[in-house]
Each structure stands twice: as structure tokens, then as C-alpha cells.
Write a structure and sequence with these properties.
Shape: globular
Strand order of the largest sheet: 1-2-4-6-7-8-9-10
Order of helices and strands: HEHEEHEEHEHEHEHEHE
Organism: Acetomicrobium mobile (strain ATCC BAA-54 / DSM 13181 / JCM 12221 / NGA)
Radius of gyration: 15 Å
Largest sheet: 8 strands, parallel, barrel
CATH topology: TIM Barrel
CATH class: Alpha Beta
Distance between the termini: 22 Å
Number of helices: 8
Structural class: alpha/beta
Protein name: Glycerol-3-phosphate responsive antiterminator (mRNA-binding)
GO biological process, one term: glycerol metabolic process
Strand content: 15-25%
Oligomer: single chain
Number of domains: 1
CATH superfamily: Aldolase class I
Length: 191
Amino acid sequence: MSGLSDLKNLLQKNPIIPALRSSKDVEAALKITPRCVFVLESSIYTLKNVVDSLRERGHFVFVHADLIEGLKTDPSGIRFLAREINPEGLITTHKNVLEIAKDLNLLTILRIFLLDSQAFKKGKQLAYNVNPDFIEVLPGISVIAVDEPILKEIPFPLIAGGLIKTLDQVNKILSRGILAVSTSERALWEQ
């Protein structure tokens, strides 16, 4: 798998994205059907093995560049991540990381926060400036309470992540037009 359309198709079939924070999460993800996965925490020492293992299992792997221990999110760090680790895409909150990732032909996810109207406005403006492939809205649970016209102000495919613990929450979020949900709640990964 490599392209944006492949990923969108995969997310339509499996809209719950495992958010991996530990080696136990990686072990659990290696036992489930192939899908998109987010590696949220790792170190520069273990990341290549993690990504390679997940890809061998058939997963479509995104790495949260901002959270990798030992990796700076400067141009050299992102080029290293793209060339040596070789995920399908990167997740970040930083404009420069998105720009470099796009230049390296990686898929991109911009994380924005729905903490208040100012944070939403700032995130939306950043999205218009860098044109990511997807936007991940945090906390994902807030999507249930936000008016749908506000969500429609963002013309990018949306993923909701953070504080999502139940299948009922997942279903409510997806019913709001959100493409997918990322969660570290392992019980939801095979739903």
C-alpha cells in the first residue's frame, strides 16, 4: 500500500486506528488484521524494528514525528525518518515537519486541538497553509459535542483521536462525518 486513495479505502473498511504507545501495543497490533496504525511513542533506537514489523504484517504505518525520543524535527531528522525508517506517513503539529514530509512524498496528518474557538481557528489556518492529507482533531471525544457546521469548515478528511474509550463513542464520532478514530483502547481495535 502506498497512496492516499489506498489509505482512504482502508480507513473506510477499518475506521478504528490503533494508537501504539508501548511495546505491548505493538505486540497486540501485530495480531490484528492489517489496517492503518499510528506509532505515537518510540525511540530512534527501536523505531525501525517497530515500523518494519508492522509493515510486514500489512499495516499502513504513520509515525508521530514529534514524539519520537532522540529525533529532532528539523529537516535532517525528518529526512532520516523518511529514508531510514520509511513509514507511509507522518503525524505532527508543526508546519515545517509537514512541509518537509510532503517534499519527501510522505502522507501527512496535521494534529489540531479543539480546546476552544481560538485553538480551532489557529489549527484551521495552519491546515490551509500546509494542505495536509488528513487532520486529526484532539481530543476526539469533543467531536461529539461540536456543532456539525464547525466540523464542515475543515475541507480535509478528519480523524478524531484522544479520550475515546467505548464503541458507542466511536459510532457517535463516525456518524458526524469523521473518516476514522484513533485510540489506544486495545479492546476497540478489532471492532
